[in-house]
Amino acid sequence: MKKLFNILLAGAAIIMLAGLQSCKKDSINAQYEDLLVGSYLVLDETVNTNLDFSNPDATVSIKVSEYGSAVASVNIYVATGSNVLDASAWKLIKNVPYSGSTTLEVKTSELAAALAPAEITPGTQYSLQNEVVTADGRKFSMANTPTSFSSFPAYKMALTWPATAVCAFSAAASAGTYEVVQDDWADYSPGDIIEVLEGPSENQVNFLGYPATAWGGVNQKNTVVDVNPESGQATVAKQGTGGYGSTTAEVQGSGFVFSCTGIITLNLTVYYGGVPYAGNKFILKKK
């Protein structure tokens, strides 16, 4: 069994190297020695992937090292459009010289400049694409690297990484009167009013959510949302919130509470009588 595994592993390595051919090549058919020329980045450390879009000097960054042919520099792009692997829709952010283990860093202002005239949208996870430029001028990226290799955990490839646009949380600033924008559970209609309160503990807000009074809510309890003060990332721990008549209601989920824009976006699982109904988007906008 071990011998068979080694043979399969060796075969996979050869196929991988073949897949990492330069975009100069018209095909991957070549002599064996020509196949050993690929290059990619290895992820050494994820420093930060949450980008405070309200601060132009805020950064996201990762630390990388080279594998394969010598790397001269790295072009960092932001992918736009629905297909993040479509290099024709990538927007160049900047070029970073490579020298040993290197930190790749992107500022809010740099991402904004690359996306212009479009603006950074809070809560959006942007796909940053690294294009390796080798010392002899060849280029490697997700656009010409088979996804079957880039997704293999053992390779720790760092050809793509996320930047999620966030802003710092303030419970006091988040409290107030909100309008319902979207409620997939349909207890509320767009335009309905919900009061969001500060607390009960630090870095928390709460509001009367499910069950709504109009839907026969009894023994109602406010939904408590825990919020990361640095990023606005929200967590709704599983909690009982009352009942629809004799049928119990619980909620659980995650999302964002953005004090800087007055937007609360939660993705909730509603437990109706103990049965989970997942994927309910609940969006509020401050008036």
Structure explained in plain terms:
The chain is mainly beta. It is elongated, with a radius of gyration of 24 Å. It has an 8-stranded antiparallel β-barrel with strand order 10-11-12-14-15-16-17-18. Strands 2, 4, 5, 7, 8 and 9 form a 6-stranded mixed sheet that branches. The protein folds into 2 domains: 38-166, Immunoglobulin-like, CATH 2.60.40; 171-286, Lipocalin (Beta Barrel). Strand 15 and strand 16 form a beta hairpin. 13% of the residues lie in helices and 47% in strands.
Concise description?
This protein is mainly beta and 287 residues long. Helix content is 13%, strand content 47%.
Outline the fold blueprint.
Elements: H1 2-19, H2 32-35, E1 39-48, E2 50-52, E3 59-68, E4 71-79, E5 90-97, E6 102-107, H3 108-115, E7 125-134, E8 139-140, H4 147-150, E9 160-166, H5 171-174, E10 176-183, E11 193-198, E12 204-207, E13 217-218, E14 223-227, E15 233-244, E16 247-258, E17 263-272, E18 275-286
Parallel strand pairs: 2-9
Antiparallel strand pairs: 1-3, 3-6, 4-5, 4-7, 7-8, 7-9, 10-11, 10-18, 11-12, 12-14, 13-15, 14-15, 15-16, 16-17, 17-18
